[in-house]
Automatic annotation (TrEMBL):
The lineage of its organism: Bacteria, Bacillati, Bacillota, Bacilli, Bacillales. It comes from Bacillus selenitireducens (strain ATCC 700615 / DSM 15326 / MLS10). PANTHER family: HEAT-SHOCK PROTEIN 20 FAMILY MEMBER (PTHR11527). Keywords: Stress response. This is Heat shock protein Hsp20. It comes from the Bacteria. Residues 39-153 form the SHSP domain.
Length: 154
């Protein structure tokens, strides 16, 4: 049934392939791809995987181009929050350069996840090769409201 309407490349310009007005909407074969595909990634939010490992949660976020010093992980009253700020070049440098296309940009993000009653002292984080990994141990007992910045290992 998917071959009923074969896809074709609507771009006729070899220098800018895929620049049709609605490439994802009409070429993907599914409207759900349009609404969930790269929309989150294009909005400046990093993609995150949260895995339940039984006695702890493992959270991984792809942060290409970021350095460890660009990223802050905090635990506050049941919420794990990841902040990041990344700057590629100075704006004055950009004005002096003659870009034909510029897709890399500076920006920041803020993601929060509710993880429940967790002892903030037991949370560990690492940042290696552009991937942030945070382990959040679970607990059965109620923990006091705490705020803690999580240090990141290499």
């Amino acid at each position: 049934m998917t071959n009923l309407f074969p896809r074709r490349n609507r771009s006729s310009n070899p220098f800018f392939p895929g620049n049709s007005l609605f490439p994802t909407l009409f070429d993907s074969g599914s409207l759900s791809d349009f609404f969930t595909g790269d929309l989150l990634n294009d909005s400046g939010f990093p993609r995150v995987d949260i895995e339940d490992k039984g006695d702890y949660y493992k959270i991984e976020a792809d942060l290409p181009g970021f350095q460890k010093d660009d990223v802050v992980v905090e635990f506050d009253n049941g919420y794990l929050t990841i902040h990041g700020k990344h700057e590629t070049t100075e704006e004055t440098e950009d004005k002096e350069r003659n870009f034909v296309r510029k897709e890399r940009s500076s920006g920041s993000f803020h993601r929060s996840f509710y993880v429940g009653d967790i002892n903030g002292d037991d949370i560990n984080g690492s940042f290696k090769n552009g991937v942030l990994t945070v382990t959040v141990p679970k607990t059965d007992k109620e923990t006091p409201d705490t705020t803690k910045r999580i240090s990141l290992d290499d």
